């Protein structure tokens, strides 16, 4: 048995023995000391990735196994996600040893961070914060100042978590380079990026780096739309949920605008694949053209906002038929709705027409026509909750009235949005 493997087996046995210990019998001080020691051990074990992955690179194992890149190689070898594999490769190249073509071993790009990681004093997130911050300085600040900055941030990382350290690092960068990165639009454009990654339960995680102009616009628009909604009770959404819903409103506005570029002469279309039974019942899961699973009920809520095409497939995936495509209310119908409802028609809501959606009183999939006497304007918040919240819309003399649930009004007297 190779010595490194025997060493790792011995370490694993020690961890197993520790995990079987009855911690209820130790004092508070001993418990806290054990937690801190376990955290240092965990960080040390994580730092083993750096020399190991560096050696994988040095031996060109991905190329010898006919795999495109070290991250793809690690993802398959360790059954970790591509994103996690990419992170580990980046960290190994920043914090691990480097081997040049001649075989000479050079010190890590960030030697003090590497030493802190190996000692168990820094988390991977600490290292990421320091690496990103120093990267902003490399082309603008002398090397000796960067070494000093690295030493300073490593010392601060012993006292603060990664979030606090990021704030300290921003102040440091602004101090060392007060006229640099904020004024450099070219550098901001080079680093701009946004990604959407699938996570559990059919949801997606959005992350990215916005340039100053885009972030200013995003903060202004999203925060203006993320204010708590007035209603019968306090808005139950958290600040993060309100920002999410504000982003959804902006995207739906773009869908409704009709100004999105076409592909091959076809207007921007939400293409949903489902069965005819799902289309009629409104239940189950459908699939978008991006491979994203979405509830049929969610997909059909888009019918009043954008083009929607549905495809019926056979058991082996062959296309049997195309469903009809539904267009949003015409421009003249929309202008008439704005003149009639003057914004969200829900009682008490003040959302302006620009942030409303066309709601079919009788659902389109149930045969409801796209006619003025079957449409009203609702903001994104109320459009998503009108059915689940127990409210019902009825048309009286060509005007939308809202019947509240019994818990709000036992008599269920219809209400109107009495705008000034």
Overview of the structural elements:
Helices cover 46% and strands 14% of the residues. It has three domains: 27-178, no CATH class; 240-322, no CATH class; 331-403, DNA Binding (I), subunit A, CATH 1.10.30. The chain is α+β, with helices and mostly antiparallel strands and 420 residues long.
How many helix segments?
17
Coarse structural class: alpha+beta
Main beta sheet: strand number and arrangement?
Answer: 5 strands, mixed
Give the end-to-end Cα distance, rounded to a whole number of Å: 84 Å
Work out the number of β strands: 13
> Average pLDDT, to the nearest integer?
80
SSE sequence, one letter per element: HHHHHHEEHHHHHEEHHEHEEHEEHEEHEE
- Globular, elongated, flat, extended or rod-shaped: what is the shape? elongated
| Major sheet strand order | 7-6-5-8-9
| Proportion in β-strands | 5-15%
Task: Write the SSE topology.
Elements: H1 3-19, H2 28-47, H3 49-58, H4 61-64, H5 70-78, H6 82-95, E1 98-99, E2 105-106, H7 111-118, H8 124-135, H9 143-157, H10 162-176, H11 185-191, E3 193-198, E4 204-209, H12 212-225, H13 239-257, E5 269-273, H14 276-281, E6 285-288, E7 293-295, H15 296-301, E8 307-313, E9 319-322, H16 331-341, E10 356-360, E11 375-379, H17 380-385, E12 392-396, E13 399-403
Parallel strand pairs: 5-8
Antiparallel strand pairs: 1-2, 3-4, 5-6, 6-7, 8-9, 10-11, 12-13
Helix pairs in contact: 3-6, 5-6, 8-9, 8-10, 9-10, 12-13
């Amino acid at each position: 048995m190779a010595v490194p493997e025997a060493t790792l087996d011995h370490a694993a046995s020690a961890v197993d023995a520790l995990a079987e210990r009855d911690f209820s019998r130790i004092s508070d001080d001993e418990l806290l000391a054990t937690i801190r020691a376990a955290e240092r051990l965990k960080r040390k074990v994580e730092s083993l990735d750096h020399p190991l992955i560096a050696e994988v690179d040095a031996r060109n194992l991905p190329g010898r196994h006919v795999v495109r890149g070290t991250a793809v190689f690690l993802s398959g070898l360790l059954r970790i996600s591509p994103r996690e594999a990419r992170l580990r490769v980046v960290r190994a190249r920043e914090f691990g040893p480097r081997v040049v073509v001649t075989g000479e071993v050079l010190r890590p790009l960030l030697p003090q961070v590497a030493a802190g990681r190996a000692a168990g004093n820094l988390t991977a997130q600490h290292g990421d914060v320091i690496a990103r911050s120093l990267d902003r300085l490399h082309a603008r600040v002398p090397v000796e100042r960067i070494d000093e900055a690295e030493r300073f941030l490593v010392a601060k990382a012993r006292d603060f978590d990664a979030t606090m350290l990021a704030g300290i690092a921003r102040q440091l960068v602004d101090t060392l380079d007060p006229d640099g990165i904020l004024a450099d639009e070219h550098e901001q454009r080079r680093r701009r990026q946004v990604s959407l990654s699938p996570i559990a339960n059919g949801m997606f995680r959005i992350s990215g780096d916005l340039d100053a102009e885009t972030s200013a616009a995003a903060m202004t628009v999203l925060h203006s739309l993320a204010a708590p909604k007035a209603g019968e009770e306090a808005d139950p959404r958290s600040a993060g949920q309100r920002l999410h819903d504000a982003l959804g409103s902006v995207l739906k506005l773009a869908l409704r605008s009709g100004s999105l570029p076409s592909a091959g002469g076809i207007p921007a279309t939400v293409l949903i694949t489902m069965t005819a039974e799902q289309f009629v019942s409104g239940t189950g899961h459908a699939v978008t053209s991006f491979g994203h699973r979405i509830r049929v009920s969610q997909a059909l809520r888009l019918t009043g906002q954008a083009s929607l095409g549905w495809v019926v497939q056979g058991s082996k995936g062959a296309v049997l038929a195309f469903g009809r495509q539904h267009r949003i209310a015409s421009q003249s119908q929309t202008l008439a709705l704005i003149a009639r409802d003057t914004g969200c028609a829900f009682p008490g809501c003040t959302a302006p027409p620009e942030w409303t959606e066309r709601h079919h009183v009788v659902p389109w999939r149930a045969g409801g026509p796209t006619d003025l006497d079957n449409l009203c304007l609702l903001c994104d918040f109320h459009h998503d909750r009108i059915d689940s919240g127990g409210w019902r819309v009825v048309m009286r003399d060509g005007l939308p009235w809202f019947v509240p649930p019994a818990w709000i009004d036992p008599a269920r007297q219809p209400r109107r949005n009495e705008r000034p």
